[in-house]
C-alpha cells in the first residue's frame, strides 16, 4: 500500500489513473467542532493501483488529484457520497461523473441507506475490520492499521462496483441510479451562500416581517459560523432563529429576554452584530423577505387515510421490485400526492412515476385496490360494472 505525502508522488500516481474507466474514492475528515470539514486523508483505487493521499503533509499540492476528479472521462465511485462531494466541491473540483454505491444498493434491493461494510459483506462475502472507525484522522503519524482500514474503503469498492453496475443494468435500473446522481452533482446542493441559509430551515409563519428577520438571522448565523469556523449550532440553535423572527427584538434587553437565546448573548460580541442584521431586515421587510414556494391545495379531510393507503401501496411495489421504498418515495411525497394529483414531487416524475406514481393516482381514482393474499399485499385492478342503459 502506498501513502502519498509529496506533490511529485501524487502527480505520478494521478498519471497512472489517466485512462482508467473508473476510480473508487473515499475521504476521512473531521468536522465535529468546525464549520468547514477538515480533510485528513483521501483514499483512491482503480482496478490496477491504489493509494492513501495525505492532504495534511507539509507542502503537498492536491491539484493533480483535483484535475482527475474534474476529468469527465473517468467515473468517480463513492459510497454515501454527499459529504465527500461537498469537500471536493469546496475545493472547486466537483467529481463528475459520479456513482454512489449506497444509492445503487437501494435500487438493487440491499435496503435503505445500506452501510459500506454491510454491502461488502453481502456482495463480496468479506468481513471488514472496523476497529479504526472512530480514530482521530488529524493526528500524525497514522498507524499501519489505520491506513489498512482506510484503504479497504476503496479497494473493495473498486471490486464490487462493476458487479453492482452489471446487476442494475440487467435489471434495467441503471438509469434510475444515473438520474439520482444528477442531484448529487448539482452544485446548488452544496451552496453555502449565507443569504440562502434560511432554505435549510422551516419557517413557521408567512408574514413579510417574520420572514425578513428569519432570513436575516439565518444569514448572520451562517456568516458567523463560516468566519469563526464553528458548527452552526454552537453559534445559535435552529429554534432560536424562529423565536427571533417571531419576536424581532431591536434592543439588547429584548434579545436577552428570549428563552432560546443563550444567557448573556446580548452582552457578548455577537449581540450588537445580530441586532444590526435584524434592524437592517426590518428597514425593508417586504423587499428583504424571501419568496416562499406556493403550497398546493389544502389536503382533503380524507388525506390521512389516503396517505396510509399509499404507504401500503409503496411497500407492496417496493417489495415486488426489490427496491428500498425510500428511494421511490418519502412520506412527504405521499402527503403531496394525497392532496393533489398534479403535485410537484419526484414520485410523480421519471422512473418513479412508472414504478409507483401512476399506481398511486389509480388508487386515488378507485381504479386499483389492495388485497390481502395471506401475508402478502397484492395490487389488483378494479373492474367496474357496465352502466345500465
Characteristic terms for this protein:
389 residues, alpha/beta, Nucleotidyltransferase, domain 5, DNA polymerase, domain 1, six-stranded mixed beta sheet, two-stranded antiparallel sheet
- Estimate the mean pLDDT confidence: 93
Helix content: 40-55%
Q: Please report the first level of CATH classification, the CATH class of the largest domain.
A: Alpha Beta
Could you name the CATH topology of the largest domain? Nucleotidyltransferase, domain 5
In terms of quaternary structure, the protein is single chain
List the helices and strands in order.
EHEEEHEHEHHHHHHHHHHHHHHEE
Structurally, how many domains make up the residues? Answer: 3
Spatial sequence of strands, sheet with the most strands: 1-4-3-2-5-6
Largest β-sheet summary = 6 strands, mixed
Describe this entry's structure for a reader.
The protein has 389 residues and is α/β, with parallel strands linked by helices. It has 3 domains: 3-189, Ribonuclease H-like superfamily/Ribonuclease H (Nucleotidyltransferase, domain 5), CATH 3.30.420; 194-288, DNA polymerase, domain 1; 303-381, DNA polymerase, domain 1. It has helices at residues 7-17, 63-70, 82-90, 101-107, 116-124, 144-170, 174-184, 208-228, 232-235, 238-247, 252-256, 270-283, 285-288, 303-321, 325-328, 331-339, 350-365, and strands spanning 3-4, 22-30, 38-45, 50-53, 75-78, 98-100, 368-373, 376-381. The strands form 2 sheets. It has a 6-stranded mixed beta sheet with strand order 1-4-3-2-5-6. Strands 7-8 form a two-stranded antiparallel sheet.
